[in-house]
Design brief:
The chain is of the alpha/beta class. Helix content is 33%, strand content 28%. It binds S-adenosylmethionine.
């Protein structure tokens, strides 16, 4: 994929992006959109230890820590992690932070360390190569205890690729002052442009379709996979902005 000088994974999160990320999320609106979806699913299986494997600026980690979960927060971008620690201090929450690449997960934690792993905010789509997607999901599967839960999400790329990008601005990334435009839209690459009042950056991602995600989850050994669109089920294929999968380790 070197043809367009595609940008790479966590290196797309330098300091100026990390500093703008929270206004791109809009924590209050994100919480309103998801309500207690994640908390309910994690409580349903009595999760205690949760790995937030793409913690970014800490939105999910902080929310779950406040709810009493024991959260480990991992990210490879030092700037996103720094911001997560800053946000945690503001909210009087202590986060257990780990700086690592997903490709090194097996050397960071012992097998069966977690009741649940969350992989949220359209993060998995930073993996452009199929073998990387497979091996990262296998590592996560190993890190989970038996009957552990993975919750993973992505934008609705079936909609974006087949019918075009649109957004209700109500889910996940809700900042009103940002305009998101896919300036490149191909089956193997989407380059999003993010325009805010004071910010502008690009993000390159792999547009994973729901069927591929389901196939990868099953191949990695997950079962009982439930799929939601904007936190609801059933949902219209081209109607939801974000897709969530809740999968159980066999
Ligand atoms: C789209 S952001 C999502 C952050 C957060 N989950 C949220 O919802 O706001 C993706 C995050 O994944 C991290 N990331 C991307 N590639 C990674 C990799 N290979 N290993 C670890 N973290 C990575 C980035 O640094 C970034 O913080």
């Amino acid at each position: 994929m070197g043809d367009m000088g595609k940008s790479h994974g966590w290196k797309q999160y330098p300091r100026h992006v990390a500093n703008a990320w929270d206004s791109f999320i809009d924590w209050r609106r994100r919480k309103r959109g998801e309500r207690s979806f994640f908390i309910q699913h994690l409580r349903r299986m009595n999760a205690v230890n949760v790995l937030d494997v793409a913690c970014g600026t800490g939105y999910d980690s902080i929310r779950l820590a406040k709810e009493g979960f024991e959260v480990t927060s991992l990210d490879a971008s030092p700037h996103m992690l720094e911001r997560a620690k800053y946000n945690a201090a503001k909210e009087r929450v202590i986060l257990r932070c780990v700086r690592a690449d997903w490709k090194k997960l097996d050397s960071c934690f012992k097998p069966a360390s977690f009741h649940a792993v969350i992989f949220l905010g359209n993060s998995f789509t930073h993996l452009f190569d199929r073998p990387d997607r497979e091996s990262v999901l296998s590592s996560i599967h190993r890190l989970l205890k038996t009957r552990g839960m993975l919750i993973i999400d992505h934008r609705n790329y079936d909609m974006i690729l087949d019918t075009g990008y649109k957004s209700k601005h109500k889910f996940v990334y809700c900042g009103e002052n940002f305009e998101v435009i896919p300036v490149v839209r191909r089956d193997d690459l989407i380059r999003f442009s993010y325009f805010g009042k004071k910010h502008h950056w690009f993000l390159d991602i792999y547009p994973i379709r729901t069927n591929e995600m389901l196939e990868l989850l099953a191949n990695a050994g997950f079962s009982k996979i439930e799929t939601f669109g904007d936190f609801e089920r059933p949902f219209a294929k081209y109607g939801a902005d974000f897709i969530q999968h809740v999968a159980i380790k066999k």
